[in-house]
Amino acid sequence: MAKKFTVRKIHRYLSIFIAIQLLLWTVSGIYFAFNKIEMVRGEQYRLPLETEYRIFKRLGQEIIETNENGLKTYLSHPDKLPVKNLSPEEAITIAKQKTSLIPIEVSLIEKEERGVEYRGRRLPIYKISTDTKNDINIYLDPVTGDIAAIRSDSWRAWDLLWALHIMDYQDRDNINNILLKIFSVLALISSITGIILFFKKTI
Fold first, then answer.
1. Average of pLDDT values for 83-112?
2. To 10 degrees, the CA torsion angle through 11, 13, 18, 21?
3. Which of 18, 76, 140, 158 is deepest in the core (most CB within 10 A)?
């Protein structure tokens, strides 16, 4: 009887510690769900961009990037001729120069889809598969030659778990979705009532 009472008591006190942490997780989750990250970062205070310029090298060629209120155009420097997109072979060359991976195949992606691993990147974009056990893909901008993203099985597992965590099963990035808001409020109610029941005297 004493042993049974001790186990029950241990379980009871462990439950209250866990409930308090769940309450903290839930409160912070509600804050994230109901506040857009762009607003938290202060993006609403930014004024429209003036024209900005950037000069960079792409396979030895200097290119000037002009950014007018978010619209970017590219000309060769200093002769200011239109810049052509990289060929698949040139994309492979840049991937070899900028990563330690071994590129084996390249394809051009032009269609945007929901929840893909290159989401948030400008299209079109080159997808370069590599000779790795972790199924690593390199995503490369065909205009600038910048490495836009590197995705592996480890990243895909993380991305799946993140989608499950924020309950956004399609886009996988929206922490302000209605499903998460509803369940976070329900979890808050559950945590608070659990703590109340702990302190309530048993009949």
1. 95
2. 180
3. 140
- Token readout for 172 is 């996988």
Identity (one letter) of the amino acid at 42? G
Question: How does DSSP assign 4-40, residue by residue?
Answer: HHHHHHHHHHHHHHHHHHHHHHHHHHHHHHHS-HHHH
- The whole-number pLDDT of residue 1 equals 52
What is the tally of structural domains in the chain? 3
> Average model confidence (pLDDT) for the chain?
87
d(CA 110, CA 130): 20
Do 104 and 129 share a domain, yes or no? yes
115 and 158 share one domain: yes
Strand partners, 158: none
Share of the chain above pLDDT 90, in %: 46
Q: How many Å apart are CA 152 and CA 138, to the nearest integer?
A: 9
Rounded to an integer, what distance in angstroms lies between the CA atom of residue 150 and that of residue 100?
12
Q: What's the pLDDT band for 203 if we cut at 50, 70, 90? A: very low
Whether residues 126 and 80 share a domain: the answer is no
In this structure, what CATH number is given to the domain that contains residue 98? 3.10.450.40
Per-residue pLDDT, averaged over 35-57, amounts to 84
Find the angle CA(48)-CA(54)-CA(59) to the nearest 5 degrees.
145
Helices 178-199 & 2-34 angle (0-180, nearest 10)? 150
